Amino acid sequence: MKTTTIKLFLCISLFYMLAIIPAFSQNKPIAALLAVESKGVIQDQEAVNFMLNLELEKAGIYSLLDKYETSDILKKNNLETKNCFGRSCVIAAGKALKTDKIITANIDRFGEKIIITLKVFDIKTESLEKTDVTEYLNLQPELQKMIEISVQKLAGIKPDPNIADLLVNYDMPIESPKTRLRLNGPRMGASLAFGDAASVMTAKEGDGGFNMYPAMFNFGWQHEWQYLSSGNFQALIEGVALIGGLESGKMIPSLSILNGFRVGKNGWEFAFGPSFRVVKKASGFFGDGNHGTEDGKWYYDGDPQFNNFYNPLWYSREERVDSRGQNALSTSLILAAGKTFKSGYLNIPVNVYISPRKEGTIVGFSFGFNVYRKPKSQ
User: Fold this and answer.
1) Which of 109, 202, 286, 345 has the fewest C-beta atoms lying within 10 Å of its C-beta?
2) What is the pTM of this model?
3) Count of structural domains within the chain
4) 214-226 burial, b if ≥16 CB within 10 A, otherwise e?
């Protein structure tokens, strides 16, 4: 009795292995990778074919016919598949191979893009079942990753977004380290001074002023160096050299070095950093209405009457912008925000900024333009 039970169990197990397991394996459609064409990529045809077979096997949606078996069967049927991409040729090959699906692939480089096209033909209905066309950046050493993404999309599997962001060309230069938004180019705009800075600018030169308008037109050049790019985020150093004051008969150079951040697909930007300019400064003090001085009046040390009013016990010396003084380096903080507008390949950056200073705040705006240039091919 015991021996009979064991024999029955072994028979059932053998039946399961011979009948049930193969039935499960047949749930996957049988497919063959037929025609593969590549142009302009550094990998040879055999390497590309291997990558495609490997990624199709990893995707696991088809029971893939061995490439050597595919080649043998097609040769026996006198079918040439090297350029077999048309529907009639593909269907004929599929019937000879007795597969459910036939897959074809094209990998082409066009300038700065690599385009991968995958097609699946249904042999039973003799029609194109589905296709995937994806544009990638020209990063040829990463071709297998590109093929992996295309196969996953064809199979309905969501690719790793971190890998896709670095390889897929979304036509947004900000998206990748290889598609950087560069805004080098001319800058122009205007600034307006407030507080004591405006008073000094508009005062007569005999009183230490500059006899200028409180508003000033600026023009110059911006150059930038990007040191970080990740997805929709860029970090860069911006150098902005400007000349202003020409409308008042002056020439005031300035240089700003800003740490900038661009975020989002719409080109929003925030920046901050120091600004340097050469101005004339003099040493002196402000009167307080005592000891013969006028309240609020500036007395600078180049005035012959200076010593008649100044006493270190009464007043403390300080430096102030004064047209009668000596050239000196002046520094201030710049806080800026802006957005880049686009028209085709034309970039138009527009920024507003504020420079808070002890002697008076300056606010302004600037804009510029340049033409987007794609990075050089690798």
Assistant:
1) 345
2) 0.52
3) 2
4) bebbbebebebeb
